Amino acid sequence: MATQTGHLKLTYEDYRCIPDDGKRHELIDGDHLLSPSPTTKHQRIARALVTALTNFLHDHPLGEVFIAPYDVVLSDFDVVQPDLVFVATAQADIVTEANIRGVPTLVVEILSEGNRKLDETIKRQRYEHYGIPEYWIIDPALDQIKVYRFADGRYGQAVVLSAETTG
């Protein structure tokens, strides 16, 4: 379960001082959030998705895919580590040696026990705030993917894909 660890509004410089302990650390509006490492099922889904996207991008060089842990610095107070991130070739300048600095084309979160509220509410609101064009939430418990697309300043109704609809 993701937990807040303090009441001070932290910056990216503060975040960089957090020791590497194998857990996922993120800043959401300056609040430090801590999540345990993902489950085996979570890792298997991430691996399958990365493999599929990498194979697709090999034949269609449209951009680059990155996997957690990898910082996406949206602002000095918002630093996230989505499970997967896609950056289109046209935005390649936001990819630095250390992280992504700016708004990627797509972020993907895979739900785990205890992170549902974080991914479905808190992070969705932050991703919407920054205008991330597409946000996927993969729900292993329901065998679903919720796809949010940014238009007219907000995310529209999620398109829900399930194992039945995707084959």
What do you see in this structure?
26% of the residues lie in helices and 34% in strands. It is α+β, with helices and mostly antiparallel strands and 167 residues long. Strands 4, 7, 9, 10, 11, 12 and 13 form a 7-stranded mixed sheet that branches. The radius of gyration is 15 Å and the shape is globular.
Describe the secondary-structure layout.
Blueprint: E1 3-4, H1 12-16, E2 24-28, E3 31-35, H2 40-59, E4 63-67, E5 72-75, E6 78-80, E7 84-88, E8 100-101, E9 106-110, H3 116-130, E10 134-139, E11 144-151, E12 154-155, E13 159-162, H4 163-166
Parallel strand pairs: 5-8, 9-10
Antiparallel strand pairs: 1-3, 2-3, 4-7, 5-6, 7-9, 10-11, 11-12, 11-13
Q: How does the major sheet shape up?
A: 7 strands, mixed
Radius of gyration (Å):
15 Å
Distance between the termini: 31 Å
Spatial shape:
globular
* Helix content percent band: 25-40%
Number of helices: 4
- Beta-strand share of residues: 25-35%
The helix/strand series, from N terminus to C terminus, equals: EHEEHEEEEEEHEEEEH
The structure class reads alpha+beta
Low-confidence regions: none
